[in-house]
Every structure is written in C-alpha cells, then in structure tokens.
Amino acid sequence: xxxxxxxxxxxxxxxxxxxxxVIIACTVLLYIVxxxxxxxxxxxxFVCYAIEGIPARTQITSNMxxxxxxxxSQVTTNMITDCGNVVGRYVSYATEVPTNGYFFESMLMDKxxxxxxxxxxxxxxxxxxxxxxSFESTFGNAIFPDDYIDLYLKTTxxxxxxxxxxxxxSIKVLAVRDSQGKDVFETTLETRTPSQLLFSVPEDxxxxxxxxxxxxxEIVVVxxxxxxxANPGETKISSNYLKDLIESRTGDIPDxxxxxxxxxAECRLATEDTTAVETNPTE
Length: 283
Prior knowledge:
Helix content is about 25%, strand content about 25%. By secondary structure, the protein is of the alpha+beta class. Strands 5, 6, 7, 8, 9 and 10 form a six-stranded antiparallel β-sheet that branches. Strand 6 (about 150-155) and strand 7 (about 160-175) form a beta hairpin.
C-alpha cells in the first residue's frame, strides 16, 4: 500500500505528468467552449417580421405580419419575437417598417400614446385652417411642413376685371396631407398626393380666410425660397383692399367676440408717386 502511494505521488509530481494533465484539461475546456459556441451559432428561433411595408401611424393587423426562423445570434435587445405583441399596435409617427423588417419596442406605440403632431404645433389662441390644394398647385409637391409661403387671392371686380395680388405674407405650413388625411411626407413606402395644406392662424385671419373660401374666391399658394423660411417675417395681411373687398361681400355677426387683429403690411396706392425728391443737394 505504501509503495502504491509512493508511486502515485511520484506520478503526480512528475513534470511530464503535470504537463500532460494540463494539456488534457485545456483540450477538454476548449472543446466545451467551442461546442457551446457552435450550438449558439447554429441554434435558431422564431421572430416576428413585416411581410409588407407598413407606414408611420398605421395600425398593424395580422395579415401584415408573420414569423420566420432566424439564428438566435441575430436576435437583439428590444426585438419583438411574438407577433401577438405587435398586432393591434401602431407604427410610431416618427418611423416606418420596411418589407421583411423586424419589430422593435422603440418603433411601436399603443393607440393612447399616438399624438396628433399638427395639434401639438398649434399656437395658443390659434385655430387650424385647411386649404384645398393639388399636386399642380403645390408646384409638384414642392411645399413642405414648416415652410413659410405667401397666399395670393384671385377674383374679379364689379366690372369683371381680374384682380390678383398678395393676400397674406409669411404664413407657416404646419402639415401637408393627402385626401385621406395622411401626412404626405411621413413615408417613402408609398407616393401620396397633396390635397390639403394646414396652417395655424389667429381667429380674425381664420374668419377672413373662411369668408374668402365661402365666397368662392381662389386662394393661390405661392412658395418662396429657403431664405424666406429660414428668416420668417411676421404673418401679415398684405392688402387692405383685398381685406375690405372680402368684408364688403360678407356680413358681420352683431355679438361676435372681439379678437386680436392680424397686422397689415404697409402698402401704397398703385397711383402713388414713389419718385424720391432730393433735397439739400451737395454743392
């Protein structure tokens, strides 16, 4: 028994034996690590994906989604794997889901969380005015939200002569909507044709614009350059003549509430002489 213990002790303390044991242990460890990595690399799971492009603000239905098998290593943080957690929710107003795209928590919202971005932009005391437009009247869909533009007015006087001139200057576009009320520029998955421009206007300007609309007068959109938008002036009525023309064709409500008045730009009569007369010339 003593000889056996001595033999074991010599075997363990032998440098060659220790080296062999270390090599065997490292080999086993490397095999276990490699085997686990191979299993993880080839193991699969199912995730939810979009079988068609889904625009922003769209409620997701069951026919828009399906599941596919992917490598487990492809599943990232916040990726939604169960379609049951997708159907019935809305794509966020700030994103869209492409065809074959995966779903993440950051791109989905519940109905109660969806904001109306136009109402969020509405200035206190102002109201929304909707102007009907077309692809042609917006110069090939060249007018964008947050652009500052001018509105011109076209009508005829009592003699039947055409009157055309600037009506309101430096008015901000809040949104461009199609005939379904969808934002024209919130998605690239489909082409949307502009049908409405939305503006935030004070009450007196809203009344004036609505009167022009009900009179059947043509309100013409006139875009300006980027500098006009980058350095916007105050929103003003450009012509007292056009304002008085509208009001002369409509009536007032006797007990109508008094509202703040939108400024009118300084104007001159067409017949007014604007030639400067030099005084005290330099001798």
